[in-house]
Design brief:
Helix content: 40-55%
CATH architecture of the largest domain: 3-Layer(aba) Sandwich
Oligomer: single chain
Number of strands: 9
Strand order of the largest sheet: 3-2-4-5-1-6-7-8-9
CATH superfamily of the largest domain: P-loop containing nucleotide triphosphate hydrolases
Strand content: 5-15%
Number of helices: 16
Structural class: alpha/beta
Order of helices and strands: HHHHHHHHHEHEHHHEHEHEHEEEE
Distance between the termini: 55 Å
Shape: elongated
CATH topology of the largest domain: Rossmann fold
Number of domains: 2
CATH class of the largest domain: Alpha Beta
């Protein structure tokens, strides 16, 4: 059971979150600013151009005063009908609906327009109104959480996910004070160009540790990438290689394992790769004295690196992002996150019950794709192909991902094998192909077909 029966709309007040009737709690008045509300209304009534500056920010339910909410609703409906907004038109609209007395009569409208000075910063006042609503909405949500958690809430995780989504929607309802001017936008663009010129011959993103991959991609950027290939095709090994390479640069990295591998298995694979020890032999309990020493040394190095390994099988977008934020806020930090793998995502709560599995996975992907640049991290989502090389239920996310890579291992013996990273799509350049080598004994990717033992 969710916190509400309907989908939550933060800009329209949302079901159960209309705050005007919320009233006092324990004798305390909810946050509000009637002066800011009056200033916004006065600006809208005195100058229709002012209304255009706030109509994308405020909805009637954002006002604390029910009278103010009604007057603002009148402004919206007059504008939608193409009518002029002024004190006479608003009074007529209220009178026609027998609402004028409930809103203080014409005296209140006159008070608004007579007592309020010219409004030069109406957008700032509108944001104040919105922010007070956000505080009330958050308090209202907290009250509902407090009331409901004593009763039958159904599945705890679903209920907590619903609460998290509603709070996230309230947070996301904030707006910038002003859209950046053209001068500001051009200045930022020029700064990026100068920065790129200054980095000529250098990477714009973070190095993957693989020379040809860096050359073809300019490194890892703060966005999402879908890495796909057949099951057992080296995707996880490739991702772990990138993780170690970034961690050795002091960049925080993490993996959230959604499938069957445990944290111990992932750490063992990393230790064997770093120590140049045959991973398959270790799994069979076969190792030499040199292997033991090498794994000990590799383990000591890995313990000093900023690496997070989480095998709690988080599968909803809320769970994944909560785990990612915890990693980012730790001392190790987080610059790259690997999710293994997309077919294990769960997003039924984000879509209707009758939606397809492809739409469900895409809903999770959308939230992750939006979060990556905001958090300043690279997210690499691993995705399996079916026997025919088709992405099936992951088609939509692969189609819309800013970056899409396909890993191909060349046919060969049990020794080192060539590998191609097909860069099918990237935001920062044209499609391309990067070459590297896969070392199956160590489950590791490298620039060379020979690896020096440590």
């Amino acid at each position: 059971m969710g916190l509400t029966e309907q989908k939550y709309d933060p800009r329209a007040g949302g079901p159960g979150l209309r705050v005007v009737p919320f009233g006092n709690v324990s004798g305390r008045t909810p946050p509000h600013d009637l002066d800011a509300e009056a200033t916004v209304l006065a600006g809208c009534i005195l100058d229709a151009r002012q209304f255009e500056k706030v109509r994308d920010i405020l909805q009637p339910d954002h006002f604390y005063s029910e009278s103010n909410a009604t007057i603002y609703r009148g402004c919206i409906e007059l504008a939608a009908a193409g009518s002029k907004i002024d004190v006479v038109a608003v009074a007529t609209w209220l009178r026609d609906r027998e609402l004028i007395q409930k809103c203080g009569g014409t005296a209140y409208l006159a008070q608004l327009t007579d007592a309020t000075p010219a409004v030069y910063n109406i957008r700032q006042h509108a944001i104040t109104v919105l922010d007070k609503w956000r505080l009330r909405a958050a308090g209202n949500l907290g009250a509902r959480i407090n009331n409901q958690h004593y009763g039958d809430i159904g599945a705890a995780q679903e209920w907590l996910d619903a609460a998290q989504r509603e709070l996230a929607a309230i947070v996301a309802a904030g707006v910038p004070l002003e859209a950046p001017s053209l001068d500001t936008t051009v200045a930022r663009a020029q700064a990026k160009v100068h920065d790129a010129i200054g980095k000529a011959g250098k990477l714009i993103g973070v190095s993957t540790g693989l020379v040809d991959v860096d050359e073809k991609t300019a490194g890892l950027h703060k966005e999402i990438t879908v890495l796909h290939g057949p099951p057992g095709g080296g995707k996880t090994a490739f991702a772990l290689t990138l993780m170690v390479n970034l961690a050795r640069q002091g960049q925080g990295v993490g993996i959230i394992e959604l499938d069957t591998m445990t944290a111990e298995e992932i750490a063992t694979r990393m230790a064997c790769a770093v120590g140049r020890v045959n991973y398959h032999a270790i799994r069979l309990g076969k190792h030499t004295d040199r292997d033991y020493t090498a794994i000990e040394a590799a383990g000591q190095e890995l313990r000093t690196l900023p690496i997070h390994i989480d095998d709690h099988k988080y599968r909803t977008a809320g769970q994944i992002l909560a785990a990612a934020r915890a990693m980012q806020e730790s001392k190790k930090g987080l610059r790259m996150l690997v999710l293994d793998h997309a077919q294990k995502f769960r997003g039924r709560d984000l879509v209707g019950k009758n939606e397809t599995r492809e739409r469900e996975l895409y809903a999770v992907f959308e939230l992750l794709a939006e979060a990556a640049p905001k958090m300043g991290i690279s997210i690499i989502v691993l995705s399996h192909e079916n026997a025919g090389g088709d992405l099936a239920e992951c088609k939509a996310m692969a189609r819309d991902a800013p970056n899409r890579w396909r890993l191909e291992l060349h046919k060969g013996s049990s020794g080192p094998r060539g590998a191609s990273l097909h860069i099918e799509k990237q935001r920062h350049g044209p499609p391309d192909e990067a070459k590297c080598w896969f070392h199956p004994s160590f489950v590791w990717f490298d620039d060379d077909d020979t690896l020096r033992l440590l």
